[in-house]
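Renewal narrative, Specific Aim 1. Our central claim is that a sequence can be written position by position from structural information alone. The example that follows is taken directly from our test logs and has not been curated for this report. It begins with the structure tokens describing the chain, in the order in which they were read.
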């Protein structure tokens, strides 16, 4: 065999082997939840519409707050969910418009609230778990900066920030009712015990809303839902903008909420703001998902309004 022909054969074999290795490269290892205090991911589901939640207690002190870390494979999504039995004794919800004190003040501070990471919100308020909720006016990773909520916040009967007629809100009434309502319809807050705004309703009476069904963009998501009789509250955070989780559309978020047990659902602020934090048995607070603030995976954004779960004495 001539030298030229020998070289051609070697080059052909090299590219054949290289292409074969590329084609049969092992899949990316499944990401495991990187901390021991919380249950790991369960067996994944094929798609958002196939999710089957396997709830586990989030705390040894109550069976009214359950936790589920799930994943889907088409698309590739990793998510974290909390289910709260609002009819159970010893648990309650906490709504805040941000931290109640900070490093400064100004016209942009709105009702005098300050930026707070969800992990700070959970730690400072003695909560079991919490998620971000409202959109807001600045982007920062620093706690304690003046910040303005874009939408309604009512905290234990106190109006912290006014309704935004463009968006929806999750509302708890003094008579025990819970609902997702258009903020444009909130003209009186005297009957509201707690309320936290978000963006739009994505699940209504067990069906995707028209808006959710037509949106195609995938992002990290934070959402909440309630069951048909209002007994159970579902908190959901979906990761995105990283290799292990592509993010979700509004429709996929609604599908996951429905599979968790929700009858109605609202899409909260997402993207780099999406975060869920929880308290471990040793009283430490962990961020369960991987926030991506400023393009940095694991960097948590400081937000305004947040929603949390408290164990009552």
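The sequence written for that structure reads:
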């Amino acid at each position: 065999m001539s030298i030229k022909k020998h070289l051609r054969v070697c080059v052909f074999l090299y590219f054949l082997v290289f292409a074969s290795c590329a084609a049969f490269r092992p899949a990316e290892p499944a990401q495991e939840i990187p901390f021991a205090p919380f249950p790991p991911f369960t067996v994944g589901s094929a798609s958002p519409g196939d999710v089957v939640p396997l709830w586990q207690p989030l705390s040894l002190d109550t069976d009214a707050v359950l936790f589920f870390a799930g994943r889907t494979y088409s698309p590739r999504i990793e998510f974290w969910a909390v289910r709260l039995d609002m009819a159970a004794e010893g648990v309650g919800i906490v709504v805040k418009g941000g931290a109640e004190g900070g490093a400064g003040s100004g016209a942009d501070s709105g009702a005098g609230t300050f930026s707070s990471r969800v992990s700070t919100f959970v730690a400072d308020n003695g909560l079991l778990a919490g998620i971000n909720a409202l959109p807001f006016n600045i982007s920062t990773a620093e706690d304690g900066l003046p910040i303005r909520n874009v939408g309604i916040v009512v905290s234990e009967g106190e109006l912290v920030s006014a309704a935004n007629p463009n968006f929806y809100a999750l509302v708890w009434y003094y008579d025990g009712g819970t609902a997702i309502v258009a903020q444009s319809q909130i003209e009186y807050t005297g009957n509201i015990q707690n309320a936290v705004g978000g963006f739009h309703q994505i699940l209504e009476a067990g069906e995707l809303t028209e808006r959710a069904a037509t949106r195609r963009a995938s992002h990290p998501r934070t959402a909440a839902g309630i069951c048909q009789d209002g007994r159970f509250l579902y908190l959901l955070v979906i990761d995105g903008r990283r290799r292990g989780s592509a993010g979700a559309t509004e429709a996929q978020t609604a599908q996951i909420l429905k599979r968790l047990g929700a009858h109605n659902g609202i899409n909260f602020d997402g993207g780099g703001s999406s975060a869920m934090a929880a308290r471990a048995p040793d009283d430490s607070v962990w961020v369960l998902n991987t926030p991506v603030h400023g393009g940095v995976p694991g960097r948590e954004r400081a937000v305004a309004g947040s929603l949390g779960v408290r164990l009552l004495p």
